[in-house]
Fold:
Amino acid sequence: MDTPLDTTIAPPSETDARFDSARIMAAIDRLAVQFSGRDDQFRTAMAQLLKAELSAARQAAQEQLLKDRHGRRCAERLCFIQDEIIRILYDAATRYLYNSSIHSSAERMAVVATGGYGRGLMAPESDTDLLFVLPYKQTAWGEQVAEAILYCLWDMGLKVGHATRSVDECIRQARADMTIRTALLETRFLTGDAELYSELVERFDKEVVEGTAAEFVQAKLAEREERHRRSGQSRYLVEPNVKDGKGGLRDLHTLFWIAKYVYRARQAAELVNKGVFDAQEYRSFRRCEDILWSVRCHIHFVAGRAEERLSFDMQREIAVRLGYTSHPGLQDVERFMKHYFLVAKQVGALTAILCAKLEDQETKQAPALSRMMARLRPGNKRRRVPGAEDFVVDNNRINLAGPDVFRRDPVNLIRVFRLAQKNNLAFHPDAMRAVTHSLRLINTPLRENPEANRLFLEILTSDNAEIVLRHMNETGVLGRFIRAFGKIVAMMQFNMYHHYTVDEHLLRCVGFLQEIERGGNEEFAVATDLMRKIRPDHRAVLYVSVLLHDIAKGQPEDHSIAGAKVARRLCPRLGFSPADTELVAWLIEKHLTMSTVAQSRDLSDRKTIEKFAAVVESVEQMKLLTILTTADIRGVGPGVWNGWKAQLIRTLYYETEPVLTGGFSEVNRAERIRAAQAEFRAAFTEWPEAELTSYISRHYPAYWLKVELARKIRHARFLRASEQAGHKLAINVGFDEARGVTELTILAVDHPWLLSIIAGACASAGANIVDAQIYTTTDGRALDTIAITREYDRDEDEGRRATRIGDMIEDVLVGKLRLPEVVAKRASGKGKLKPFTVEPEVAINNQWSDRYTVIEVSGLDRPGLLYQLTTAISKLNLNIASAHVATFGERARDVFYVTDLLGAQITAPTRQAAIKRALIHLLTNGSSAQKPAA
Structure:
């Protein structure tokens, strides 16, 4: 049963008996006698008593929440407790502190809950918003009573928002300020003069609300859009804001504000009687509200503060509290978050329903002449969709021509989306609501229907596919029509690498594939060029591969292999030939290969290229894989795709192409090196030709292929400035805003322990290395670029931090500083570990190089890990020839090309086993830092 939002809340039946108002009032009566004449001491004692009672009552509410998992009831309990405290304080203030036997007409006050508190629901650490309503002006008595209540609440440690206004002031300010108007919309009488409150409500309805519904709705929807923009437009961000994020509680609040303002509904249940929601949609409203309140209350209880973000470290704790368990392929926290995102999705659907109802009402209420003129406007004219009798254009949006459109022909559930896409029409909310209510019609016959599958493939491969597919996903059609897709809807991956849920990632990848195909974006230059060169009949293959590449996430089997099996079942249904079906399956099975090789292998090693060529088999397959890889990385989240990764992908493609063509290449390696150097000469015209030629000769060929142009120019300026200043060691600091990292470019005399020293200096400064690019010049200088996580918001502060790291590197190189000591000191003060677990893995093989043994290390990232790894490898009497450092969220994946001290590969199984044991132990337990050899 709903609690009226404008009346006193009845005590929830499960409220713990420890908060007994009568008992507490009796205790306060005794305090009043004990401290008679000593008002300050009485107030202090009363605040201490209430603080203890509130703490006990909150603990009881938390215990009850853990037992019944009913979030709304918990919020009601907490609100009831807060109501009782304020009533007790008002009673004490008016009886013992400022008791007046004869009240004037001005000595009246209504204490009113406003804003979120006025809704009758509170999270444990929510603010208490109070309005002290006076008849017409402030009096000494009113000021004293309000202050007594507020000071006691503050002494209890509560956060209180408050205002003292007359009824006239309330009305005047509500007219002028939409925030105040919204707060007054949710007022709830607590104590004091009830007639005064009734006057406020009546005048607010008549003088503020009446006739201003359109203005209020427009303001609230604009406010909602701005809030979503600030918090991230997608409701599927993996660390959502439960209160203000898209699909969160504030969206439900906005929905109810609008309904209350427009329909004058005092309870959510009234929206059914008003025809806004049907009974099923209302139950969905209450279910979403209850789950969101449950999550929010748990977050506040765990954090002990008003934390609203469902962060990674909070997610696991809340999942356990809510009773989620792990299933094969999905952790408990991933199951919990999938449920959360499905709720956020439903909140979006409810909002769309309300907006459709409001729009329909606004149209009906328009003057007759305006409606007639609207019908005469070509853009607003209701007409048939070309070539489709079952659909009409309604104000430039597609709608249904009749109520039985889907029942009569279920293919229309797919056709409606294709027609909207083809005719560039928006979707009418009524049509989307009808689609949602017709999902049961999507059955096996419809899934096997050739026309339905043809229409779906057209949607996927036509303009604006991402937008249309997202509508299909929001309504539930996509997950019903492609059942494997339905399993990954709202599924999150509990890691720091992926920014979005799996379904959102796949839809974004389709969008980026279309951007690649359109061209014009320099960051996708290679993929765009290859897109124009693939076989025309492989275009659809590519789009389906992008949509399905992560379709099997959350299964016990490797998602690439399981995804290939899904493709083999689905593609024939979509009309693909056996050969193209196998090609889609191959692309899905190998979709991580190119990214892994590019970022973790030595691309200048011939064996690397030969092994990759053996995997991709043909230039056409490599083209398709390159495009898929580009879209996949870009779709992970902001800042994940960058110029460095683009250059590595480019290099791998063009290094492999001649191997696949038997020595013939469209652009062979020598020509590409010359082209890269010519590009550099053309772009960098600051130096004389002779100096430029000399500088170019200082870099090995691999440098010109692996480094993007902008970075090459920065390197040139940096090297010249450093050498002109006579610096043996120099550091250049840059800031990559897209990735949120600080880049340190270090120029130093090459040294076997240089990487370890750099890593140790970063660790001792608390800087976590997320990736590294390591180059050596032909004259024995090391040019290393290290990307570290930021510690400060301001670039100036980050710059000073980078300078300290540089000074530390120099001090270690000249023997002034012992790295093991400073690293150990820093590690001893580090905080709790991240809420992630990564199974440590160490792989050692000689298949990726003829000269070196490749050690691939993967484990949970932590400050100082790279320093510990490089130190341990050196102590194992191994020389590091090159290192490829990368971080994928919380997972560190570092690859080292090593030899023994004589320059040979490590071939003995016992030696390999000893190396593996030592590194696994380090990843699992950490290691005391060791001093680098001089």
